[in-house]
Amino acid sequence: AAGLGVLEGPLHGAASGPAHRMLREAVDRGSAVPVVADHLRTGRRVPGLGHRLYRGEDPRATTLFALLEDVPQAAGALAAAREVVGTTARHDPLHANIDLALAVLSVSRGMPADAGETVFAVSRTAGWIAHALEEYGERPLRIRPSGQYTGPRPPQPLPLPAPSAQQVRTRGSGSAN
């Protein structure tokens, strides 16, 4: 569950939806140029491009694009993706990331816009399971974060909290609660 939870949001995992919608629009319009121009003109990021970790090409995208080359139904979406990258490169030399590659897959196969998130999560599942199995083989709680409090010294003795109005009423009514 923790692994799936980190995929929520446009920066990790859920970024493939906007890439899908942009690519779908480019395919429908027959050109990525006006779609990219609209993003750039309005100051929006072009989805599916650039990655904080991969400054050059995203190897995951490169691999998926290569696999999609052999899928005839992907030809139109692949061409549109190349046009997105080429058009954007005139303004900002960003490389395609895995979200654009997942968009090519989902657009070419008629999947919904959020299908890329599911494919992304499924691809991570084997790694998550491997991590869990590795943890089961270790002694529990072997990581003990330590710290030292450096704030003001608390009053001695510690004051007791004042009773709430509800507690005062309950005590005065003779209730057993």
TrEMBL record:
Chain intervals with Pro residues compositional bias: 152-162
Q: Which InterPro entries match?
A: Citrate_synth-like_sm_a-sub (IPR016143), Citrate_synthase (IPR002020), Citrate_synthase_sf (IPR036969)
- Signal peptide interval: none
Task: Write out the coiled-coil annotation as residue ranges.
Answer: none
Which superkingdom heads the taxonomic lineage of this protein's source? Answer: Bacteria
Q: In which pathway does it act?
A: Carbohydrate metabolism; tricarboxylic acid cycle
Question: Which family would the database say this protein is a member of?
Answer: Belongs to the citrate synthase family.
The protein in question is named citrate synthase (unknown stereospecificity)
From what organism does this protein derive?
Answer: Streptomyces anulatus
